[in-house]
Amino acid sequence: MTLKVTYQIGIGILALTIGIATMLGFVAIPASENILTLGNQISETQARASKTIARGLQFRDIAQNVEMIKKDLPQITRVLIPPGKEVDFFTTLEKKNQIHNLDQLVRLGTAKSLTPLIQELPLTFELRGEYGDIMAYLDDLERTPEQISIRKIIINRTPPATEKQKPLIATVEGSIYVGTP
After folding, report:
1. CB distance 105 to 169 below 8 Å
2. Residues of the chain falling short of pLDDT 70
3. What are the φ and ψ backbone dihedral angles of 124, each rounded to 5 degrees?
4. 116 domain residue, yes or no
5. Structural domain harbouring 127
């Protein structure tokens, strides 16, 4: 081969290389960058769609729970002390205590909000009297329409100096539930 043919082949290879490089630079690389960008956008869209679906499912669950609560609301409110009627409840307790010949001391704790509609009010009763009277009072207390949760009952003898008057002290710890206005 002559130098001229070799030179022409070299120029042809160089031109081909420049053409391929130009095609890569102007077509393939921008296209691959666009493909990567589109892939990222698709991933972000899928993530947003997943979150939207999850929120929709949560909303559906909440809506179902609300419907269940609406159905049970009359039963729930029957066991709550209506807002502003706490004094009436304690007056009823005082009457029960007199019926059962007991001395009663009630100590209230700090109200705690359980839901926007319900507050828990911790309380402690101290009852002094005969065993049968204390048990009758507790039985009567159980029959009240309001919900009273009793966590602990401790019954002890009174000190000997007062034993003839009221032989037992019952300490009852629990909570009542009050509706919020």
Report:
1. no
2. 1-3, 23-32, 34, 59, 70, 72-77, 161-164
3. -130, 125
4. yes
5. 86-179
Q: Whole-prediction pTM value?
A: 0.57
Alpha-carbon 181 to chain mean position:
21
Domain assignment of residue 81, yes or no: no
End residue of a domain, out of 50, 75, 100: 75
pLDDT at 71: 73
**DSSP bridge pairs for 156:** 169
Same domain, residue pair 43 and 68: yes
Task: Provide the number of structural domains found in the chain.
Answer: 2
Q: Is 85 exposed, middle or buried (0-12, 13-18, 19+ CB in 10 A)?
A: middle
20: CB partners within 8 A, 6+ apart? none
Q: Which residue has the tokens 């990222």?
A: 40
Looking up residue 99, the CATH number of its domain turns out to be: 3.30.70.60
Residue 136's pLDDT is: 92
The per-residue pLDDT for 31 is 64
Bridge partners for 168 per DSSP: 129, 157
Partners of 154 in the beta sheet? 171
